[in-house]
């Protein structure tokens, strides 16, 4: 069974990490239970919004997911978020919860670093004015680098001796050293492929080891910057500075406090709010929708949010954050169904009850293993009862609706 994808959320105290976590994990709906069997205290279920397969067939009314939600063809697919606490400078030396923080990170397939771009909190999260958030990004990247490098160089001479004695390949030796970071052969291979003309491992100098660690970091910990508190007056100049300094990093502008506030108002029936958009409607906009009227103070606050956040940036950025992470990890939704003609289960009229996230271009057989474990499959069918081969791959809207027929007695 393939393990579930994990997105790590990191950020110094007061950067808005807890608020972001709340915004991503509250689907603002009666969401059905989680598919993950054990959720540790520092894990939560977030919801990645995708276009649901039901909208392709005009079956939105019949779509009722076992996990997550579907609203008019927009599906919230559960995904694991890991809340990594203890982020402070010099964590690699064990400061704060340093070692725990760094070893927690290893489970993540992708990191979202929440950065306070208002510059109103210093490196330790204390209130200030005019702090340069560039520093947070630089020292965070440096922490991970120094931690992995330290673990590797500590035993480098014996690693080289063993490498030569056993006539191992560079990939085999590095896999032994980096496997503890939830890194498989494919991942370590990808890191090495980024470095053409690598000399034999026994000839690496310090600079070469550092370059290999940086390459490994890039594939093991792809990072998205959530530039939070984007509506603060000082945010603009800091955002420009960060984008100039890190042009290769994915950045998403966010206001997690606004998102949490809007979801709360929507839950209390004061507004109708379309997640991930700039659209908010009040009782004044929709007199027949049964919304509660706003008092003057709330009405003013809504106008302010429209002007400073929604109309200016197009949304609060929170829905976009998980979508950017999914793109970075190349995840696509796949819908296993029992009945390929109706897209339902064995009984009942509801369709597309299940949805799993898998890596783009995964062979269909690995999707079957992820869903059902080690079973013997008799046949695989796609839409229109088309036969699908085990080695065929999945992609967006390609082999993404599948029915697996098992060999009898194999359950």
UniProtKB/TrEMBL annotation:
It comes from the Eukaryota. GO terms for molecular function: ATP hydrolysis activity; GTP binding. Pfam families: MMR_HSR1, YGR210-like_G4. It comes from Australozyma saopauloensis. Keywords: GTP-binding, Nucleotide-binding. Residues 5-274 form the OBG-type G domain. PROSITE patterns: G_OBG. PANTHER family: OBG GTPASE FAMILY, OBG-TYPE G DOMAIN-CONTAINING PROTEIN. This is OBG-type G domain-containing protein. GO terms for cellular component: cytoplasm. Gene3D superfamilies: 1.10.8.470, 3.10.20.30, P-loop containing nucleotide triphosphate hydrolases.
